[in-house]
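Structure in, sequence out. Go:
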């Protein structure tokens, strides 16, 4: 398991990458600005994978050289001159607990404001949490929220385009505040829709029942509505469960899975079994 901010790099070298393109993947009408940024690096020492993370070194503040932030790789392709990779970044802000004022998130706004041709400094990779298993018959369960869906979109692309298909079931559960923020499944970008014709792939979306009131995203309901198949997948031999998103989503997932298992104790036992067998992977931030 990988919890962002608590895992060291496998390579501490600082690399450089050039921004090739920056595309907004949420509609202009959405209050959430999420961008996909495509970079290239000519450093052959960088060994990234979809789902691994890099530490972006944004310009620092208050005398600090850097302000660092971890982002998972939504795409990664090796090329003769190095590598190309993509990051999925939500423009963030936060409220200061002391004075109540709103401030821009340093790293996210730095990245979202970059223009093509600009360069970034980064290090990594950090962990390899979402490795595709060797067995193409293995069932894959992906549960993501917000920008957590980005590495799953890369995994889906990898198994159906690079590997030529998948025999096991691939099930993606993705939560967002509204339909506009269902990344890669909205009017601005619907990349995942191109895989709906794959017989082994299904995607299930969950949104907040009352987004204006900031009610929780109904990810638990989406899982429970597909309880039989979800439990079959977590119980099937060689299956994998991948989880990515905000740390608080684990509580929602555990509650839903406890209901599916029939008891909290039953789910705790099953999750321990998955972790022990190296079949449960999560990236939380």
């Amino acid at each position: 398991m990988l919890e962002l901010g608590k895992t060291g790099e496998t390579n501490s070298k600082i690399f450089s990458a050039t921004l090739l393109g920056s595309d907004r993947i949420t509609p202009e009408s959405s209050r959430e600005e999420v961008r996909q940024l495509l970079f290239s690096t000519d450093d052959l020492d960088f060994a990234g994978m979809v789902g691994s993370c890099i530490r972006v070194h944004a310009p620092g503040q208050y005398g600090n050289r850097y302000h660092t932030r971890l982002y998972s790789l939504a795409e990664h392709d090796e090329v003769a001159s190095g590598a190309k990779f993509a990051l999925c970044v939500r423009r963030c802000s936060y409220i200061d607990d002391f004075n109540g004022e709103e401030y821009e998130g340093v790293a996210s706004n730095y990245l979202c404001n970059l223009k093509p041709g600009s360069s970034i400094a980064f290090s990594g990779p950090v962990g390899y949490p979402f490795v595709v298993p060797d067995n193409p018959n293995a069932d894959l369960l992906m549960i993501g929220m917000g920008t957590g869906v980005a590495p799953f979109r890369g995994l889906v692309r990898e198994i159906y385009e690079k590997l030529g298909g998948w025999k096991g079931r691939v099930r993606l559960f993705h939560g967002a505040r509204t339909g506009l923020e269902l990344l890669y499944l909205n009017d601005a970008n619907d990349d995942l829709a191109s895989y709906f014709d794959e017989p082994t792939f299904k995607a299930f979306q969950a949104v907040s029942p009352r987004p204006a009131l900031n009610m929780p995203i109904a990810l638990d309901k989406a899982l429970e509505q597909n309880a039989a198949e979800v439990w079959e997948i977590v119980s099937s031999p060689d299956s994998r469960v991948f989880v990515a998103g905000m740390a608080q989503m684990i509580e929602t997932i555990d509650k839903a899975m406890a209901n599916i298992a029939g008891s909290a104790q039953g789910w705790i036992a099953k999750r321990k079994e998955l972790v022990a067998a190296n079949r449960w992977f999560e990236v939380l931030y």
